[in-house]
Amino acid sequence: MDNKSNYKYLLSDLTSLKGVGIKTANLLKRKKINNIFDLLWKLPKSYTDRSVSSKIKDLKIGENQTITISPQKYSFPRIRNLPNKVLCSDDTGEIDLIFFNSYEGYVRKILPIGKEITVSGKIGFFRNKYQLTNPKYISEDSSLIKQKHNTYSLTEGISEKLYNKIINQIINKLPILNEWHSNKIIKNFDNINWNESIKKLHSPETIGNYKKNFYRRLAYDEIFSTFLVNSEIRKKIKKIKKKNKIFLEKNQNEIIDKLDFSLTNDQKNTLEEINKDLCSSKKMFRLLQGDVGSGKTIVSLLAAFNTIISGFQVSVMAPTEILARQHYNLAKKLFPKNLNIQFISGKSDYKTKKNILNKLSTNEIDIIFGTHAIFQKKVTYKNLGLIIIDEQHKFGVNQRKKLSDKGGNNCDILLMTATPIPRTLTMTMYGDMDLSIIAEKPKLRKPIKTYSKLESKINDVIKFVKKEIKVGNQIFWVCPLIDESKKLDHSSAVKKFEYLKKLFPNQVSLLHGKTNIEEKEIILNSFLKNEFKILVSTTIIEVGIDFPNANVIIIENANKFGLSQLHQLRGRVGRGDKESTCILMFKSNLSDNAKKRINILKESNDGFYISEEDMKIRGFGDILGFKQSGIKNFKLADPIHNKDLFLLAEKEMKRIEQSNEDISKFKPLIKLYDRADIINDIA
Ligand code: ADP
Ligand code: MG
């Protein structure tokens, strides 16, 4: 077979395997195993050694053992529910093989009298005789049984025996693919090829050896294929020619002068990077990354302003109306009065909406703020020059690609995210974009003081809250959902609200998943205006909203949250220049491991550091629910443990890009590892 049919074979349907019918294939499909290649990543957890056989007299009761026997006598009772029985022997003793729910004909067929048969299973002892009940493994060919049999975490409805049978089949026929990596790269893995690596991955002797060359090579394949796809998308976007924007920095500075703070160096630098992109004739596709409170909004609004004065329209999308409105209000405050600035809300009446849509299509509106509604099909822009998307870390590559296609060629794209993740993950998840990072926070800002408290000490906390309210400060009080699976379970928040209301009459409000959107907005706005002091809520308060006057956050049952999530929650305070406090409350004393994690949070206000440390403890999949978000999930590679491989892949990718090397030899790699729609037209 040639290389192409080799890798195509790996992508073929599961039903092409012996022993896999439509039923089994469907069970596997439910686990997202759609073809032979997918099955390769179903890894054995351990194995049962059936390779050594024993004599009957040496059998150990209760253990999995293999014996070669010869059947002597059948007993097929005619009474229902009594098992069929076959008396067997070797030259040292006798054993009964017991079959429940079996047909006589089947038993006769697999255990013919007088033949030598090898069987394996857990040995029992009953009425002074060894017995083996429903043996899993029976064969005339002892070599089929005398092996190490892998143990898999089973898919319901598929037996271990079937798994082993299927995987053995695949491994035995595993094609040898042409090497896609350069000699230099493959040297890092002692020159082991893909085929051998997969075999080792499934060999009982090497289970869990993730530091070995075969495992690292396969992890590298995965990482590299992701980087390749990212690079191809980048190249495609870079090829798009656009009308460049023309503006004078002088105008931008007039707005900067209106601010009551000066920009940090990182804000200035990232703004410059973005401005340069706006002025170039290549389409911008850039991510602005910065921890909560690092001041991304103003950077994006300045870029928006520059786009508008070069004659284009801008649309700004935020995940919630409240956040969109906050951005809108800021633009209203900062931008010159002659600009047409609009906000579109789900609640706006038909006439208002229609009017806005009209004016967008005639270029009367310069900038529009809203939720995803501003990208619906019926919304047409006359001359869209920049799309800004805030807090959309859950957008996957596919969605971003669609977005970049929308808006047309002249439209630049700026995404913003506060999700602090290690660089290895950024490279993976956002490698299709250019990256601007705001690392430093505004200078005046004092670090948030973080404490942990036992729930039984709530009176201390109340005392503290009273003191804060007295000096005019506001407080967030966060209660987690009691049962994550019931998204509407907000009983703890309701209870706390009732409790606090008595202590602080007319000073407390409540927000939870059942509060309707209008009410929610009213409550948040009145909190913003400092009309009450304590906001009790579940975690529904979105990231990104700026409450400069709130400087205390109390998080109950804090062990329900991951560190990165706690950091994000904590980021709701500490945005103004006041001293802020975060109190983490716990039901009972913390375990050592939990203490270790909480200490990371107390020591540091740096989201990137926190997420990296948290990942070291918990593994990357759990952080901020990446697993659920559909963002790239590696089969073997781990952004923490395999950091060196990510860096190696990055370096190799740069080399290939710079030397303009032909990438067609990587086609099988991409086809096997990334089957997203976006790469259909690549290579
Ligand atoms: P994020 O990066 O989380 O979106 P924001 O843009 O909402 O952060 O900014 C958080 C707060 O910091 C806002 O109140 C904003 O006015 C303020 N801010 C932004 N830049 C600076 C700066 N250079 N100095 C002081 N405060 C700033
Ligand atoms: Mg923000």
Structure notes:
- The protein is α/β, with parallel strands linked by helices.
- Helix 19 (517-528) links the parallel strand 19 (508-511) and strand 20.
- The protein is globular.
- The two termini are 22 Å apart.
- The structure holds adenosine-5'-diphosphate and magnesium ion (MG).
- The site of adenosine-5'-diphosphate has 18 residues, from helix 12.
Q: What's a quick, concise take on this entry?
A:
The chain is 38% helix and 18% strand. It has 683 residues and is of the alpha/beta class.
Keywords, please?
OB fold (Dihydrolipoamide Acetyltransferase, E2P); 683 residues; 24 helices; binds adenosine-5'-diphosphate; disordered C terminus; alpha/beta; 7-stranded parallel beta sheet; binds magnesium ion; 6-stranded parallel beta sheet; 4 domains
